[in-house]
Amino acid sequence: MSSRLDQPRDLRRNVLPHYDPESFGRLSERIARFMGTARFLVYMTVAIVAWIAWNALAPSDWRFDPYPFIFLTLMLSLQASYAAPLILLAQNRQDDRDRVQYEQDRSRNERNIADTEYLTREIASLRMAVSEVATRDFLRSELERMLKELDARDGQKDPA
């Protein structure tokens, strides 16, 4: 039966389980953060030493991984194969957060520059306006000059 363009498609059944990428990302970050601590290194060292001690010193019937410790190597390889992608996922999420932070910082800097330029223009216009306004010192000097002129005129009129 051919599909018709005037009919809606049937919903596809998804066989894969659904997961929340955000929750998985948070979990991967927590795991990666823990793997970068001294506590993790101590736990891994204790576990490996206990593994080797058990398989070297326990009675031969109780040993589950004899001397070349192949199963230990397999377990460490398995741990590393899961650790690397989890660490990369955590780094990608951190890169995304850093990019968003960078964009916010850039826009904040642009606003600060615009505000600074505006304030600079306002200060310049205020300076220009103040230079046109008579200051107290200017008025005092003008009044003193006028008083001297008046005194000089009065001095010229008195001898007559």
UniProtKB/TrEMBL annotation:
Domain of life according to the entry: Bacteria
Keyword Transmembrane applies: yes
Key words, A-Z: Membrane, Transmembrane, Transmembrane helix
UniProt-recorded name of the protein: DUF1003 domain-containing protein
Ranges that cross the membrane: 40-57, 69-89
Classification via Pfam families: DUF1003 (PF06210)
Keyword match Membrane: yes
Gene source species: Actinomadura gamaensis
